[in-house]
Design a protein that fits this description.
The complex is a heterodimer of chains A (259) and B (241). With 259 residues, chain A is mainly alpha-helical. Chain A has helices at 18-38, 44-47, 50-66, 70-85, 89-109, 111-115, 119-142, 145-151, 159-189, 197-225, 242-258. Chain B has nine helices and ten strands. Chain B has helices at residues 40-47, 73-82, 90-93, 99-109, 114-127, 143-155, 173-188, 225-229, 232-237; strands at residues 2-11, 14-24, 29-33, 55-60, 63-64, 83-86, 161-165, 192-196, 209-213, 219-224. In chain B, the strands form two sheets. Chain B has a six-stranded mixed β-sheet, with helices on both faces. The longest helix of chain B is centred in the C-terminal third of the chain and has 16 residues, at 173-188. Classes of the chains: A mainly alpha (259), B alpha/beta (241). At the A-B interface, helix 9 and helix 10 of A face helix 2, helix 3, helix 4, helix 5 and helix 6 of B.
Chain lengths: 259, 241
C-alpha cells in the first residue's frame, strides 16, 4: 500500500486524445443544438405561435414545390427573405449556409440537365431547393423542438406518436449528457498510452445502452404508477396574438397568389 | 498548489461563479459548501480542467491551466495524473467490463508492469473493502459499491489531489463512515482533498477548512471548518443547514 502514500515519478508517453476530443465535441454540438432550440429567443418571428409557423411552412413548401409561376416564386422568395431578416444574426447565418449548401448540391446534380439546354427549369429547381430548405430551417431555428412536436397535433398526428417523439427528444438530450460525462471521465483518466481507445468507447456505448434501457423501464413504470394505460392526450395551447394574425394574413396572401 | 484568481463562469446567460479567489495549499483538506446551484460542482470541474473560466485565471503548481495548455497531450496527461476526480454520479465514471479492469485502467496506461498493476488493484480492493467485487460488472453494483469502485479507480493512478463531488450522496451510513475514515487517512498521508458536500453529519474530522458559496455564486466565507459548522445562524441564513 506504500505506493499510494508516496508521490509517483511519472512521465506520460506520447499518445493522441483526438479521438476522444472529437467525440466530445460532436456530442456537445448536438446537445447545444437541442438546448438552444428549446430556449427563449427575442424577435418577432420567434414570437409567432408554433402551430401557425408549422402550418405556414408546410403550406409554403408545398406551394413552392408545385408552382411554376414566376410571380408566385418571386413572392415566396420575398417572404423567405423577410423571415430571414427577422431572425437573429447567428440563426440567419445558419439558415443561409444550409440553404446555399443544399441548393449548390442540387445545382451540381443538375449540371447534365443544364448541359443539354434545360437551363431555366434547372435554375428554377435550384431556386426552389433554396427556398424550401430555408423555410424548413427558419422553422427549425425559430421554434423549440417540443413546440414543433406539439404542433403536429394540428396535422392529425396521433397523440401517442407525439408522446413517443417528445420522449425520444428528451432522452437524446439526457443520454447525450450522460455520454458527455462518461467521455469526460474517460478523458481525464486517460493519463498514459491507451492502445484500446476504441474498446473503451465500445464499453462506454454498452453502458449507455444499459442505462437507456434502465431509464426507459423506469419511465414506463413511473407512467404506469401515474395511471398511464397506453392512451395519451396532448393538449395544444393555440392563442392568436396580433403578430400571429399579421403572419397568417401574409401567408394567406401568398397562398392566394399561388392560385 | 491550486490558485484561483478572479474566476467567473456562466452557462449561457446563467452565472455559475462570480469573481472567485481561492488558494489551496498542498496537503490541505477543504470542503466546499453552499446551497444547490451555488457553483460548487462548476468550480470542481474548473479545478479538474473540464471547464474553463470565461474570466480569471487558474494555476496548478504555478502553471496556468487553460484550454490551450491542455491541448498539449503530455501536459494534459501529467495534469490529470496529479489530480483525480470522483464524479457525483459513479455511473458516469465506470465503463470497464469488470471492477478489476476499472481499477487497472489508469495503471495500465501508465505502463506499469502487470505485477505492479495487480498489486495496486489488490491493495485498493482491500483498502476499500470490496475484494469480493473483483470480477463483478460495475454496472450491476449497488450505489455504495459503485462509489467505492469509482474512488478506487481514481486512487489507482495515485493522484496528489483528490477532488470529490458530493461523495456522500446516496450512500448508507456505514459506507459514509467508511469513506470519511478513508479521506482522513489519505489526507494524513499528504493527499490534498477538495470536496463539495452537504452531508455534515458524516464528515467530522475530514476537513480543516471550509469555503462557503452563496446562492449569488460568490464565496461568502473562507474559514476553519469547525468554526463554520458550529455557526448555526450563518448556516441557516445561507440555506446550508
Amino acid at each position: 500500500m506504500d505506493w499510494l502514500f508516496r508521490e509517483d515519478r511519472y512521465e506520460p508517453g506520447s499518445d493522441s486524445l483526438k479521438f476522444i476530443d472529437k467525440s466530445l465535441m460532436s456530442i456537445l454540438k448536438i446537445l447545444s443544438k437541442i438546448d438552444r432550440l428549446g430556449g427563449q429567443r427575442r424577435g418577432i418571428l420567434y414570437g409567432v405561435t408554433p402551430p401557425l409557423k408549422l402550418i405556414s411552412t408546410i403550406l409554403t413548401v408545398v406551394c413552392v414545390s408545385t408552382s411554376r409561376d414566376a410571380t408566385f416564386l418571386l413572392s415566396a422568395g420575398l417572404f423567405v427573405l423577410i423571415n430571414l431578416i427577422m431572425l437573429e444574426k447567428s440563426d440567419r447565418k445558419r439558415v443561409l449556409a444550409l440553404g446555399i449548401t443544399a441548393s449548390s448540391f442540387s445545382a451540381v446534380m443538375l449540371i447534365p440537365s443544364m448541359a443539354t439546354g434545360n437551363i431555366i427549369n434547372s435554375l428554377i429547381i435550384v431556386y426552389k431547393v433554396l427556398l424550401t430548405v430555408s423555410m424548413a430551417n427558419i422553422l427549425s431555428v425559430s421554434t423549440g423542438w417540443f413546440d414543433v412536436s406539439a404542433s403536429l397535433k394540428l396535422l392529425l398526428i396521433p397523440d401517442i406518436f407525439i408522446l413517443v417523439l417528445e420522449i425520444t427528444l428528451k432522452y437524446i438530450y439526457l443520454l447525450g449528457e450522460i455520454s458527455l460525462n462518461m467521455l469526460t471521465a474517460l478523458k481525464i483518466r486517460s493519463i498514459g498510452k491507451n492502445n484500446n481507445k476504441y474498446s473503451s468507447i465500445s464499453a462506454l456505448m454498452g453502458n449507455l445502452f444499459l442505462k437507456s434501457k434502465e431509464m426507459g423501464e423506469e419511465l414506463y413504470s413511473a407512467m404506469e404508477c401515474r395511471g398511464f394505460t397506453g392512451e395519451y392526450k396532448r393538449v395544444l395551447a393555440f392563442n392568436i396574438s396580433r403578430i400571429d394574425a399579421v403572419y397568417a394574413i401574409i401567408v394567406l396572401a401568398l397562398t392566394a397568389a399561388y392560385f | 498548489m491550486i490558485e484561483i484568481r478572479n474566476i467567473s463562469f456562466s452557462y449561457k446567460d446563467a452565472p455559475a461563479l462570480k469573481d472567485i479567489n481561492l488558494y489551496i495549499a498542498k496537503g490541505e483538506s477543504i470542503a466546499l459548501i453552499g446551497p444547490n446551484g451555488s457553483g460548487k460542482s462548476t468550480l470542481l470541474k474548473i479545478i479538474n480542467g473540464i471547464l474553463f473560466p470565461q474570466r480569471g485565471e487558474y494555476f496548478f503548481d504555478g502553471t496556468s491551466i487553460t484550454a490551450k495548455r491542455l491541448e498539449d497531450n503530455a501536459f494534459s496527461k501529467k495534469f490529470h495524473k496529479r489530480i483525480g476526480f470522483v464524479f457525483q454520479s459513479s455511473d458516469s465514471q465506470l465503463f470497464n467490463p469488470t471492477v478489476y479492469d476499472e481499477i487497472a485502467f489508469a495503471p495500465r496506461q501508465m505502463g506499469l508492469s502487470e505485477g505492479e498493476i495487480e498489486r495496486r488493484v489488490s491493495d485498493l480492493l482491500k483498502l476499500l473493502q470490496i475484494e469480493e467485487l473483483r470480477c463483478r460488472v460495475p454496472y450491476h453494483l449497488s450505489g455504495g459499491e459503485k462509489r467505492k469502485v469509482a474512488v478506487a479507480s481514481v486512487l489507482a493512478h495515485n493522484p496528489d489531489v483528490l477532488v470529490l463531488d458530493e461523495p456522500m450522496n446516496g450512500l448508507d451510513p456505514k459506507t459514509k463512515r467508511f469513506l470519511r475514515d478513508l479521506l482522513i487517512k489519505l489526507n494524513s498521508h499528504g493527499k490534498t482533498i477538495i470536496c463539495s458536500t452537504h452531508d455534515f453529519e458524516y464528515v467530522d474530522g475530514v476537513f480543516k477548512r471550509a469555503v462557503v458559496f452563496s446562492k449569488e455564486h460568490t464565496i461568502i466565507r473562507d474559514d476553519e471548518y469547525g468554526r463554520i459548522i458550529s455557526d448555526d445562524e450563518f448556516l441557516y441564513e445561507n440555506n446550508i443547514k
